[in-house]
């Protein structure tokens, strides 16, 4: 006899069957409990702890079923204050895991907040701390990242995080390294000694490895001795490839000759100090680049035996080099070309770019928690270029532009400042201005009851020497500048500056207006000496006179600048309230 499977009778039979079998409803209920979409719908009807628990269960199922981005979204939106005990612990571990794997470092940092609020088993606490350290490194907080990673290594002895530790330590300046010191902790002490050893070796690979052998003898049980950071081991391949001869292409006449003179002074002074200090100084040959005949200049450089070229300085010359497939010698141009990107083999571009400072201001403002910015920039080509750099970076981060005001540099700042903070009221102001105009802005903000509005500026508002009486009106304004211009804020005092002997010589006899350019010459010489390392190890860093310098794969030298804040009219250290500065 054929069994009826459709219609009212079948429905009745099914109903009786379900009612009479005690195990079937549990299967149905279990299916509903395992459906994350059903759980999320259920959570939407719940409140408080019950809703948080249901969302946590849904996120766990989503993660295990491969729907990890959605699981991360659920955990990020979950009100974790409603969780406690094992549930909060589970939330933190799962959120940190997903944040790590799905590229959301801020989620990892949020998850790690439980370390300050609850006691976790050691293995789980170290795992969270490790993920937190890696996340802070991604967010541009190398100091705290290094501290956490070394704390994990001190507790666990893990050697597989040596490269991660080194990446963060190599981004720190002298004062930051001092802040990490832990007397009695051999792991931390060994790492700091190794970092200073590498920083002080300059481009002299032979000298580095001679000193490294001494460090290894003194630290036989250190994790970095057993497993040297990859970047250091790769330097072994550069032995015998030191730069002995550099050609410098600078104009001796024309509109850029004054700039060229300041850069040349920095190059020559630093080269002499390196040699006098017993270092392996490279021989310099200077060639007049005024006529712009690049082929002839390269022929002269090659004839002189140069291994590396510094220059040209003129933007149009750099743009012409960008149109080539390759340049004859590794070249450090002292400007940025106008092409969309630099694809020329052996060409690297370095300069003191106001656009870079604007991008750093955008990143810092965002990481300090601001989301709506107004812009106050001069109504000229300079203002347009720098303003666009801030606008584009801010927008990429997800920030809103409340108002963009282009002001007349020759007029009073009162009206333009008022317009910049009018409705909608921003939660930060980006300022591009020279000192005379900039000094008018904070008093105007105070007049319009906006004295608490954070102001982020570029280095152009600071003349380069402390003038407490004139700059008192700038109190509270934050700005980045080269370490040589703000030694107390950057590294805790001039004695801790990179290339201190050259700094003393140049600072004593030159005006602030050209001092930045001389510092640029110093770093250009140091970068040229390190050209084999830059080419072999993209991303390697140098603590320079003009900032922390690193080479990316796009042929550009990036500068990360220290920040200062005016206090009683003098630049003072400032530390981010947010998550720190991101890499360019």
Which helices and strands appear, and what pairs or packs with what?
Elements: H1 7-20, H2 23-33, H3 36-44, H4 48-64, H5 68-77, H6 85-101, H7 105-111, H8 122-138, H9 142-156, H10 162-169, H11 174-179, H12 186-200, H13 205-218, H14 223-226, H15 230-235, E1 245-250, H16 257-276, E2 283-288, H17 294-303, E3 308-310, H18 315-322, E4 326-333, E5 345-349, H19 354-367, E6 372-378, H20 381-397, E7 400-407, H21 414-420, E8 428-431, H22 435-438, H23 441-447, E9 455-457, H24 468-471, E10 478-480, H25 487-491, H26 500-509, H27 512-529, H28 531-536, E11 541-544, E12 547-551, E13 557-560, E14 563-567, E15 570-573
Parallel strand pairs: 1-2, 1-3, 3-4, 4-5, 6-7, 6-8, 8-9
Antiparallel strand pairs: 10-14, 11-12, 12-13, 14-15
Helix pairs in contact: 3-4, 4-5, 4-6, 5-6, 6-7, 6-8, 7-8, 8-9, 9-10, 12-13, 16-26, 16-27, 19-20, 26-27
């Amino acid at each position: 006899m054929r069994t009826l499977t459709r219609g009212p009778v079948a429905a009745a039979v099914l109903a009786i069957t379900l009612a009479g079998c005690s195990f079937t409803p549990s299967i149905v209920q279990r299916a509903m409990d395992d459906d994350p979409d059903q759980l999320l719908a259920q959570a939407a009807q719940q409140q408080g702890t019950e809703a948080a628990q249901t969302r946590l269960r849904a996120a766990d199922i989503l993660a295990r079923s491969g729907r990890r981005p959605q699981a991360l979204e659920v955990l990020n939106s979950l009100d974790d204050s409603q969780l406690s005990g094992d549930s909060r612990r589970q939330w933190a571990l799962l959120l940190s895991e997903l944040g790590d794997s799905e590229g959301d470092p801020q989620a990892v940092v949020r998850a790690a907040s439980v370390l300050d609020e609850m006691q976790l088993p050691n293995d789980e606490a170290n795992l969270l701390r490790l993920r937190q350290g890696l996340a802070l490194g991604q967010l541009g907080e190398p100091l705290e990242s290094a501290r956490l990673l070394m704390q994990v290594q001190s507790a666990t002895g893990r050697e597989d995080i040596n490269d991660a530790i080194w990446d963060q330590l190599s981004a720190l300046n002298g004062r930051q390294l001092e802040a990490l010191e832990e007397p009695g902790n051999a792991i931390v002490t060994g790492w700091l000694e190794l970092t200073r050893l590498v920083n002080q070796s300059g481009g002299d690979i032979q000298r580095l490895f001679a000193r490294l052998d001494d460090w290894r003898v003194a630290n036989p049980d250190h994790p970095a001795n057993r497993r040297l950071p990859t970047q250091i081991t790769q330097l072994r391949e550069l032995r015998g490839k030191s730069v002995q001869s550099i050609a410098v292409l600078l104009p001796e006449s024309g509109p850029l000759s004054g700039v060229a003179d300041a850069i040349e002074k920095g190059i020559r002074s630093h080269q002499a100090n390196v040699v006098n200090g017993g270092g392996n100084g490279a021989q310099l040959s200077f060639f007049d680049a005024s006529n712009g005949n690049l082929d002839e200049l390269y022929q002269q450089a090659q004839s002189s035996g140069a291994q590396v070229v510094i220059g040209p300085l003129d933007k149009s010359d750099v743009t012409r080099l960008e149109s080539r497939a390759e340049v004859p010698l590794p070249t450090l141009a002292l400007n940025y070309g106008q092409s969309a990107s630099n694809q020329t083999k052996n060409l690297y571009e370095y300069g003191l770019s106001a656009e870079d400072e604007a991008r750093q201001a955008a990143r810092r403002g965002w990481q300090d928690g601001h989301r709506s910015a107004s812009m106050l920039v001069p109504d000229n080509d300079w203002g347009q270029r720098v303003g666009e750099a801030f606008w584009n970076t801010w927008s990429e981060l997800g920030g809103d532009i409340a108002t963009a005001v282009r002001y007349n540099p020759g007029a009073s700042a009162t009206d333009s400042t008022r317009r910049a903070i009018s409705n909608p009221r921003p939660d930060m102001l980006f300022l591009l201005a020279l000192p005379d105009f900039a000094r008018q802005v904070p008093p105007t903000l105070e007049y319009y009851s906006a004295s608490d509005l954070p102001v982020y500026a570029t280095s152009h508002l600071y003349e380069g020497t402390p003038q407490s009486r004139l700059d008192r009106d700038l109190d509270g304004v934050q700005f980045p500048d080269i370490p040589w211009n703000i030694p107390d804020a950057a590294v805790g005092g001039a004695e801790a500056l990179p290339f201190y002997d050259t700094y003393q010589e140049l600072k004593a006899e030159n005006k602030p207006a050209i001092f930045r350019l001389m510092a640029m010459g110093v770093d250009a010489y140091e970068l040229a000496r390190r050209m084999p390392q830059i080419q072999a190890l993209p991303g390697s860093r140098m603590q320079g006179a003009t900032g922390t310098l690193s080479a990316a794969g796009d042929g550009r030298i990036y500068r990360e600048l220290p920040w200062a804040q005016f206090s009683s009219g003098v630049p003072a250290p400032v530390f981010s309230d947010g998550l720190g500065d991101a890499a360019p």
